[in-house]
Design a protein that fits this description.
The chain is of the alpha/beta class and about 260 residues long. The protein has eight helices and 13 strands.
């Protein structure tokens, strides 16, 4: 039952080349930066990642991208990473853009044992009809595009509406960051850092959580648990320095009153 491992390096040591990963976080908020760094040092490559975004050029998933360790990314937003854009448009990276709520639900469904679900999001667009560019060649030509998805009409509030079928997502590994966890893997996330972490954890067949604070079983009130330990297989306690390093993606400040 004790799922605590000694280090991030030990936690990711068995992730092989070619693995699929669901990675928590939103922008730079709540990303498992220590586990990502350990995976970078471990050397695994040809990875296929599902995440809301791909970090920035020098932080988070961006360090794996920079060294061309990622083969494919399924994400919702990628506008903060110039290297991501370059690799995608030059045929070095396969990318599947997915509506944000759909992406979260695809991972949650995978963890809940739901094979697929219908949603209205994407109906009437290339999300449903196919043709979204997944991969370009070096000359900017589309060499791989998304396939059409199944659609079906359902009666909603007395009106027939079209829905698109979305497959669930399961990954080999999930890596997430939590504010607090116990030795059984029960996790609590801090405010906005909750974001994509729970569904990413649910999607992983083996899920690894880095936690800022480790407590004993029973110290977390059951009503406060955001993700039960059934979805978590390894827990890594961060050092105070690792827990404190939380970068801000975009810092905007207002000029102080009276400033020149």
């Amino acid at each position: 039952m004790d799922k605590v491992v000694n280090s991030a390096a030990e936690a990711v040591a068995d992730i092989p080349d070619g693995a699929t990963l669901s990675v928590g976080g939103f922008g730079l908020c709540g990303i498992p930066s220590t586990l990502i760094q350990a995976l970078h040092e471990q050397g695994a490559s040809d990875l296929s990642v599902v995440s809301n975004n791909c970090g920035v050029d020098d932080w988070g998933l961006g360090i794996l991208l920079r060294d061309k360790r990622l083969r494919r990314i399924q994400a919702s937003y990628v506008g903060e990473n110039k290297e991501f854009e370059r690799q995608y448009l030059h045929g070095e990276l396969e990318v599947e853009l997915t509506p944000q709520g759909t992406l979260a639900e695809k991972m949650r469904a995978g963890g809940a044992g739901i094979a697929a679900f219908y949603t209205q999001t994407g109906v009437g667009t290339q999300v449903a009809e196919g043709g979204l560019p997944l991969r370009y060649d070096a000359d900017g030509n589309v060499v791989k595009a998304s396939e059409p998805k199944d659609t079906r009409a359902f009666e909603v509030d007395g009106e027939m509406k079209t829905f698109v079928l979305e497959d669930a997502i399961r990954t080999d590994y999930g890596i997430v960051r939590a504010w607090k966890g116990d030795r059984y893997g029960n996790l609590v996330f801090n405010k906005a850092a909750r974001n994509f972490n729970p569904p990413c954890a649910m999607a992983g067949r083996i899920t690894i959580a880095e936690v800022e604070e480790l407590v004993e079983p029973g110290e977390i009130d059951p009503d406060e648990v955001h993700l039960p330990g059934i979805f978590v297989h390894r827990v890594v306690l961060l050092t105070p320095e690792q827990a404190a390093e939380k970068r801000i993606e975009r810092r905007t400040v207002s000029p102080s009153e009276g400033a020149n």
